[in-house]
Design goal:
The complex is a heterodimer of chains A (about 120) and B (about 110). By secondary structure, chain A is mainly β. Chain A contains no helices and eleven strands. The chains are: A mainly beta (about 120), B mainly beta (about 110). Chains A and B meet through strand 4, strand 5, strand 9 and strand 10 of A and strand 5, strand 9 and strand 10 of B.
């Protein structure tokens, strides 16, 4: 069964500090891995996407890494801001829903709170 | 360009009542999806559609029905609501079956079944 596990479950950091969120997955056949940000009461928004051949991808202060051999990914947030407070969800895609489209396996998310 | 919108935002139902959740997208996406999000669990796919007039079952389809009569709309129906269907429901859409396409999510519908 495809699974995505994230750690830590929750994290509190001070504004301006860096942090790293972890994602381990067992999804096959692997297509791509995304990190989503979900603000409270909103839908998830894609931050980064990486395919099998990519091992790092940046989006502003967000940098994601992927090790396809160990099936691990991390999301590093630099110089955190209050607006970074959200749930960060790791999502792994495999190839093929019946009839087309990509099936996504969602992690349960890391709840990040940035404080003054 | 509104993206993906969902109606209603919040609803309270009694057990056994029925309702329909509406999802609309203005990005001309072929693929549309309905997910539910429960505490301590990742989003789970209920039903999806790969084009107008087509629907398919996802991971947790029981108790739900869907219809895609127009390309821009995807409806999720609960015929006889149960407390286990209390959840936050998200609709998403994507361009097509290309390995890297992004799913765009709506703001969610919070449903409480008493």
């Amino acid at each position: 069964k495809n699974q995505v596990e994230q750690s830590p479950q929750s994290l509190i950091i001070l504004e301006g500090k860096n942090c790293t969120l972890q994602c381990n997955y067992t999804v096959s056949p692997f297509s791509n891995l995304r990190w989503y940000k979900q603000d409270t009461g909103r839908g998830p928004v894609s931050l980064t996407i990486m395919t099998f051949s990519e091992n790092t991808k940046s989006n502003g202060r967000y940098t994601a890494t992927l090790d396809a051999d160990t099936k691990q990914s991390s999301l590093h947030i630099t110089a955190s801001q209050l607006s970074d407070s959200a749930s960060y969800i790791c999502v792994v895609s495999d190839r093929g829903l019946t009839g087309g489209g990509n099936k996504l396996t969602f992690g349960t998310g890391t709840q990040l709170k940035v404080e003054l | 360009n509104a993206g993906v919108t969902q109606t209603p935002k919040f609803r309270v139902l009694k057990t056994g009542q029925s309702m329909t959740l509406l999802c609309a997208q203005d990005m001309n996406h072929e693929y549309m999806y309905w997910y539910r999000q429960d505490p301590g669990m990742g989003l789970r796919l209920i039903h999806y559609s790969v084009g107008e007039g087509t629907t398919a079952k996802g991971e947790v389809p029981d108790g739900y029905n869907v219809s895609r009569l127009k390309k821009q709309n995807f409806l999720l129906g609960l015929e006889s609501a149960a407390p286990s269907q209390t959840s936050v429901y998200f609709c998403a859409s994507s361009y097509g079956q290309v390995g890297g396409e992004t799913q765009y999510f709506g703001p969610g519908t919070r449903l409480l079944v008493l």
